[in-house]
Design goal:
The protein is an alpha/beta fold and 305 residues long. It has a single domain, classed as TIM Barrel. It is 46% helix and 15% strand. The chain contains eleven helices and ten strands. It has an eight-stranded parallel sheet with strand order 6-5-4-3-2-1-10-9. A two-stranded antiparallel ribbon has the order 7-8. Helix 5 packs parallel to helix 7, helix 7 crosses helix 8 and helix 8 packs parallel to helix 9. It is globular, with a radius of gyration of 18 Å.
C-alpha cells in the first residue's frame, strides 16, 4: 500500500467486513434488530478455569457455547490447543463439530509466541514467524482473524515503530491467506488507546485492525487509561470487540463498565459485527458470569435498537 490511511478509510474497510459477517450471523441469532445493533459471540477465555482444570475439552467448546448458552459464534484461545496448530486431523475435528452445530469460528486469540515488537530484530522476526502456524490454523477453521499482542520495550515512539514493524510483516503473511491480524489492548503501552491507534497508522496495511477490550486498560500497577476514551480511539480500526465483564450489581449491570455507554461508542463507530463475551470474574461461576454478560448485552441491544 502507498500513502497513509485515514480513520475514515479504516472505518469504511471495517464496516464492510462487519456487514458481511453480520449477514451470515443474523439468521442464527434470529434477531430482527441485529442489523442495526450487533451480534454476540463467546470468547473461550470465559471458561478458562474449566479448560485448565480439564473439566472441559477444547473440542467441546462449540457444543458448550451453543448448547449451554445459545451462542453460535466462538473465539478460540491458542493455549487450549497449543500443540495442535499444525495437526490437521485435530483441527478437522474442531471444524466439523462447529460446522455440524452451525457454530461460526471467528478468530484465534494468540499468546505466548514472542514479542512482535521485540527490540532485537532476530527475536522480532522469530515472533512473527511463530504466528504463521496460527494464521494457517485460523484459515483452516474458517476464521476471519487471529488476535495478537503488540508487546515491545523502550521509549514510547520507539515501541510504536518496533510493534508496527513486526505487525506489518505478519500482515503481509496473513494477506496471502485472506486473514486479518487484530491487536488487543492487553497491558503496557498497548493499553494506551492513543499509542495503539498510532501503531495502526504506522502499520498501514489493510489486514491490520484492533480488538478493543472494555476492561484491559491497565498501563502498569495502579495506572489505568480511561476505558471509554480508549475504546473510542480504537474503534475506527476495530474488526472485533471484547465485552470484558468481572462483577455485576443487583440490577445485572457490570459494576466496572457502563455497557450502555460503551456500546453506544461501539455502534457510533459504525461497528455492527460480533461482540465477544469475555467473563473474567470470580464472584460468579464461569457459566453464571457468561449468562449474566449475555443478558446484559441483550438488554443493552434492545435499548439501542
Amino acid at each position: 500500500m502507498s500513502g497513509k490511511r485515514t480513520r475514515r478509510e479504516y472505518a469504511s474497510t471495517s464496516q464492510a467486513g462487519h456487514a458481511a459477517g453480520q449477514e451470515v450471523g443474523a439468521d442464527s441469532e434470529d434477531e430482527s434488530d441485529t442489523a442495526a445493533t450487533f451480534l454476540i459471540s463467546l470468547a473461550q477465555w470465559s471458561l478458562h478455569r474449566a479448560f485448565n482444570s480439564g473439566k472441559l475439552d477444547n473440542l467441546d467448546f462449540a457444543a458448550t457455547a451453543k448448547g449451554e448458552f445459545g451462542i453460535e459464534a466462538v473465539e478460540y484461545v491458542n493455549q487450549f490447543f497449543i500443540d495442535k496448530a499444525t495437526d490437521t486431523d485435530y483441527l478437522g475435528q474442531m471444524k466439523k463439530r462447529a460446522d455440524d452445530l452451525g457454530v461460526k469460528c471467528l478468530l484465534i486469540m494468540c499468546d505466548g509466541e514472542g514479542r512482535l515488537g521485540d527490540p532485537d530484530a532476530a527475536a522480532r522476526l522469530q515472533a512473527v514467524q511463530n504466528h504463521y502456524k496460527w494464521i494457517e490454523a485460523a484459515k483452516f477453521l474458517g476464521c476471519h482473524s487471529i488476535r495478537v499482542n503488540a508487546a515491545s520495550e523502550g521509549e514510547y515512539d520507539e515501541q510504536q515503530k518496533l510493534a508496527a514493524d513486526g505487525l506489518r510483516k505478519l500482515c503481509e503473511f496473513a494477506d496471502t491467506h485472506g486473514l486479518d491480524v487484530l491487536v488487543e489492548n492487553h497491558g503496557g503501552l498497548s493499553s494506551n488507546g492513543q499509542w495503539l491507534s498510532g501503531v495502526m497508522r504506522l502499520v498501514d496495511h489493510s489486514r491490520i485492525g484492533t480488538l478493543p477490550d472494555f476492561g484491559n486498560f491497565r498501563l502498569k500497577d495502579d495506572q489505568w487509561y480511561d476505558r471509554y476514551q480508549g475504546v473510542e480511539e480504537l474503534m475506527p480500526y476495530a474488526k472485533a470487540v471484547s465485552a470484558k465483564s468481572n462483577v455485576f450489581d443487583d440490577a445485572g449491570n457490570e459494576a466496572e463498565t457502563d455497557y450502555l455507554r460503551m456500546m453506544k461508542i461501539v455502534l457510533d463507530a459504525g461497528y455492527h459485527g460480533y461482540v465477544g463475551i469475555e467473563y473474567e470474574g470470580s464472584e460468579l461461576g464461569e457459566a453464571e458470569g457468561i449468562a449474566a454478560t449475555k443478558a446484559l448485552l441483550e438488554r443493552v441491544r434492545g435499548e439501542l435498537a
